[in-house]
Automatic annotation (TrEMBL):
Pfam families on file: CT_A_B (PF02626)
GO MF entry, a single one: ATP binding
Keyword entries, A-Z: ATP-binding, Hydrolase, Nucleotide-binding
Gene3D superfamilies hit by this protein: Cyclophilin-like (2.40.100.10)
UniProt KW Thylakoid keyword: no
Organism for this UniProt entry: Niastella yeongjuensis
The protein's name: Carboxyltransferase domain-containing protein
């Protein structure tokens, strides 16, 4: 069985944690923008973290569930509802067949993630389920989801109807995830110096650290264009194109900045003045156009410690979710 798109959203695609290892062929990693939220969504429904999820932008699609299943929604808060009843984020939720999920109101964040127990049954492209829109490959026929699309689920032996109370279309299970530490101070983004940081003039370095920058409306999955004070290098020498990554902060010729996101190109010739630390990429991914960013410089040691702490939290969470779900299946 499957879910069906009964009304398309702005940009809803199947994504996973991406396809690393193909940069030498000019194929970027891609994948979800908020890797933390996507991993947690899969954990809550008992999946491996690399299973495909649906990345949803507001206004989101409307989904019809054609079988009883277990779902979770994480990331941005779009006031998710099942049959016009609000459902909680960051919780596992048992859904009855023929229930309709929709997202009527933006509360905060820029994208949310829908996971289903077992995952979505779609073919991989280069070892990943992620949609590569430029190549028209991966995901669901290499494109965003449209009205009438039916996305099959992988097989499950769990009888989810036994977890539903009579007359109820869904049941939110009793546990959830506290994400306070991951998204704390959402506008404060830590970065480490890039190769061309020292090429900035002293005044530009000072302005970058003291001033705020605003996310431009033209921002997308390839990069966030930022509006702020013009920054300058001491000498405008040409650079050889070099490797870039998710979170690289580049200085454009007009003095403005761009932060590369999940669908970034594999190389770039603009000065790399910094890199957003990996632990803060989830916060960055949830910023919307007109949101403000304040960059805070840190070092590699602190960046590594924050990432290790975040990964340890995910490991603990995965074990806890597995234990909870296993006990539930045994009980029923």
């Amino acid at each position: 069985m499957s879910l069906t798109i009964i009304k398309p959203g702005l940009l809803d695609t199947l994504q996973d944690l991406g396809r690393p290892g193909y940069g030498g062929l000019g194929i970027n990693r891609g994948g979800v923008m908020d890797r933390y939220a996507a991993q947690v969504a899969n954990m809550l429904v008992g999946n491996e973290v690399r299973e495909a999820v649906i990345e949803i932008h507001f206004p989101g699609a409307q989904f019809l569930f054609e079988q009883n299943t277990l779902i979770s929604i994480t990331g941005g808060h779009f006031n998710a509802m099942l049959n016009d009843e609000p459902i909680p984020l960051w919780h596992p939720i048992v859904v009855r067949k023929n229930a309709v999920l929709h997202f009527p109101k933006l509360q905060n964040g820029n994208r949310c993630y829908l996971a289903v127990h077992g995952g979505f049954c779609v073919p991989q492209w280069l070892n990943s389920y992620s949609t590569h829109l430029k190549a028209g490959a991966g995901g669901f026929h290499g494109r965003k989801l449209e009205k009438g699309d039916e996305i099959p689920f992988k097989e499950s032996s769990i009888y989810f109807a036994g977890l539903l109370k009579p007359g109820k279309e869904f049941e939110a299970l009793k546990w959830g995830v506290d994400t306070g530490s991951t998204y704390l101070h959402p506008n404060e983004i830590f970065f480490i110096e890039g190769n061309e940081w020292e090429q900035l003039t002293y005044q530009s370095q000072k302005a970058f650290l003291q001033d705020n920058f605003t996310v431009h409306p033209f921002s997308d999955r390839m990069g966030y264009q930022l509006k702020g004070v013009d920054l300058h290098r001491s000498a405008n020498t040409e650079l050889v194109s070099s490797a870039v990554s998710f979170g690289t902060i580049q200085l454009l010729p007009n003095g403005q900045l761009i932060v590369l996101m999940a669908d970034h190109q594999t190389t770039g010739g603009y000065p790399r003045i910094g890199h957003v630390i990996s632990a803060h990429l989830p916060k960055l991914a949830q910023l919307r156009p007109s949101d403000v960013i304040h960059f805070i410089k840190t070092d590699i040691t602190n960046a590594e410690q924050l990432l290790i702490a975040q990964q340890q939290e995910l490991n603990i969470l995965q074990r806890a979710c597995t234990e909870r779900l296993n006990s539930l299946y045994v009980k029923h």
